[in-house]
Each structure stands twice: as C-alpha cells, then as structure tokens.
Specification:
With about 100 residues, this protein is an alpha/beta fold. The protein contains three helices and eight strands, in the order E-H-E-E-H-H-E-E-E-E-E. Bound molecules: flavin-adenine dinucleotide. This is FAD/NAD(P)-binding domain-containing protein.
Length: about 100
C-alpha cells in the first residue's frame, strides 16, 4: 500500500545549539530534518568556562551529532539567506 504512505516533509533547522538540537532530535523520525551549523559538533556552552581552566574537561563538553541525530542530514555551513521556500548556505547549498 505504498500509495498511502505520506511523504515526509522537509524541516530545516538553523543552528545546532541546545534549541536547534532539541528540535532536530524531536522531529528526525517524523520529517526529513536538515540541521545547518558551521560547527561540526554540539557544544555544551555552559561548560566552556570550566574548560578554559581545565582543558581536559573540554573533551566532555562536545557531542558528535551522530550520537543523537542518526536520522538528520547535517549541513556544515552558515545559513546566509532564507526565503519562503529555501535556505541558502555559504557553501552554496540550497535546501528546499
Ligand atoms: C559560559 C556560559 C555559561 C552559561 N550558563 C548558563 C546557565 O547556567 N544556565 C542557563 O540557563 N544558561 C546558561 N548559559 C546560556 C545558554 O548556554 C544559552 O542560553 C543557550 O546555549 C542558548 O541556546 P540556543 O540554542 O538558543 O543558542 P546557541 O547555543 O547560541 O546556538 C545557536 C547556534 O546557531 C548557530 N548559528 C548561528 N547563526 C547561524 C547561521 N546563520 N547559520 C548556521 N548556524 C548558525 C551557532 O553556531 C550556534 O551553534 C550560559 C552560556 C555561556 C556561554
């Protein structure tokens, strides 16, 4: 009954801070999620001060996207333009 399977909508999330990461994680099984950020990892920002005085701790304050976003498409770039239908990145990608 393939004809009854609804096509997943594209959802573009800009920014992989705690807000964007939570949205992407929550929707990754319901939609085709694209997460755009120049950073290649999630950073626990509130741990950065401790990392400055305890560099070993910094390793524990970054998390790979693959650990929590196995079904999202990661776009490592900066979003530079947004229209009603598209997001354009500094790398030249266009996500619809
Ligand atoms: C040292 C420190 C201590 C803190 N302590 C606390 C605390 O104790 N309690 C508390 O509640 N809060 C604390 N905060 C604040 C908390 O970290 C922030 O409120 C929270 O991280 C905001 O999350 P966010 O996802 O909204 O934004 P951010 O974490 O700022 O994430 C935004 C993301 O968007 C990306 N981005 C921006 N523009 C673009 C673009 N054009 N294209 C693609 N990507 C883009 C950035 O690279 C970034 O990854 C602290 C912050 C710091 C720095």
């Amino acid at each position: 009954m393939a004809g009854l399977v609804a096509e997943k909508k594209n959802v573009v999330v800009i920014g992989s801070g705690v807000a964007g990461s939570l949205v992407a994680k929550s929707l990754q099984n319901e939609a085709a999620v694209f997460l755009i950020d120049e950073k290649e990892y999630f950073e626990i920002t509130w741990a950065s001060l401790r990392s400055m005085v305890e560099p070993e701790f910094a390793k524990r304050s970054v998390i790979s996207y693959s650990e929590y976003l196995p079904h999202a498409k990661i776009v490592t770039s900066t979003a530079v333009n947004i229209t009603d239908t598209d997001v354009f990145t500094a790398q030249g990608s266009r996500i619809r």
